[in-house]
Amino acid sequence: MQQPGPSMIHQWATCRHDLTFVCSLPMLLHCTLSVWVYAKFTMGKETMTKHLCSAVILAGGESKRLNGQNKALLEVGGRRVLDRLVSALSPYFREIILVTNDPVGYLEWDVVIVTDHFEQRSSMTGIHAGLFAASHPHALVTACDMPFVQPPMIELLLAEVEPHLDIIIPRTAVGFEPLLAIYSKRCLKHIEAALIKREYQIQRIFNKIRKHDIEEPKLRNCDADLMSFYNLNSQDDLTEVESRLDVSK
C-alpha cells in the first residue's frame, strides 16, 4: 500500500486549534471525524436551544397581597426571583424580553425591555406586548413571580414546538398554565381582538388557534412536584417557599 506523501499528512494532521498529530492515516481520520461530530452536535444544540423562540417575562401585576412589593425583586433562597428566572432562561434563548411599565427599575438586567400597548392591566396585555416585540415566530411566556421554573420543563416546552402550532400549553389537574407556555406570533391578532372587547382570559382565543396541550403525567416526568408553576401571590406563599428551602438544606 502506498504511504501518504508529506502534503497529505500535513492536510490530515491538524486537528482543532494548535494540536498537531504526526501519526498514521487511520488515526488522523478518526481524529478529524471526532472533531466534525463534536462541532455538528454543539452547533445543532445551539440552533435547537437558541433559535426557535424568544423568551418573555411579564413584570406587571400590582402585588396587592404583598403590600405593593415588586415580586420580581423578592428574594427567595437569597436570590431575587428575576435573577432566578433570567438564569434559567439564558441557556435556551438569545432574546429575553421583559414587559413592564416601569422600565427604569430593570436596567441592570441584560434583557430587552418593552411596555404594554394597551392600558388595561392584565397578563393578556403583557403577552401581547411580548409577542409583538419578539423577533422569532414563537415565544415562551412566563411571569416574574415564578421562582422555580426548571430547565427540564423549558426543554419539554421547546421540544413540543412545531411551526404550525400557535400555543403549546401545559395542562394540570388545576387547569391550563398560560404563564408558562409558548405562543406563536399568529396569536397577536386574536389577542388584540379580545383586548379590544375587554376579554382578558387567554382561553377566549383557544377556539381560534391551533393549540397543543401537554398533559400532567408528561409534565411530572420532568418536574415531579410541578414547582415550575409555583407563583408568589401573598406573604404566605413567600413564607411557605422559604420554609421549604430551609427544610431541603
Give descriptors for this structure.
10 strands; two-stranded antiparallel ribbon; alpha/beta; disordered N terminus; Spore Coat Polysaccharide Biosynthesis Protein SpsA, Chain A; 249 residues; eight-stranded mixed sheet
Description:
By secondary structure, the chain is α/β, with parallel strands linked by helices. It folds into 2 domains: 13-47, no CATH class; 51-248, Spore Coat Polysaccharide Biosynthesis Protein SpsA, Chain A (Alpha-Beta Complex), CATH 3.90.550.10. It has helices at 6-13, 25-50, 81-89, 123-133, 151-159, 188-196, 216-222, 235-248; strands at residues 53-58, 75-76, 79-80, 96-99, 112-114, 138-143, 167-172, 175-176, 180-184, 211-215. It starts with 5 loop residues before the first helix and ends with a helix.
Per-chain topology:
Layout: H1 6-13, H2 25-50, E1 53-58, E2 75-76, E3 79-80, H3 81-89, E4 96-99, E5 112-114, H4 123-133, E6 138-143, H5 151-159, E7 167-172, E8 175-176, E9 180-184, H6 188-196, E10 211-215, H7 216-222, H8 235-248
Parallel strand pairs: 1-4, 1-6, 4-5, 7-10
Antiparallel strand pairs: 2-3, 6-9, 7-8, 7-9
Per DSSP, the total helix count is 8
Whole-Å distance between the termini?
65 Å
- Structural class, judged by helices and strands? alpha/beta
CATH names the topology of the largest domain as Spore Coat Polysaccharide Biosynthesis Protein SpsA, Chain A
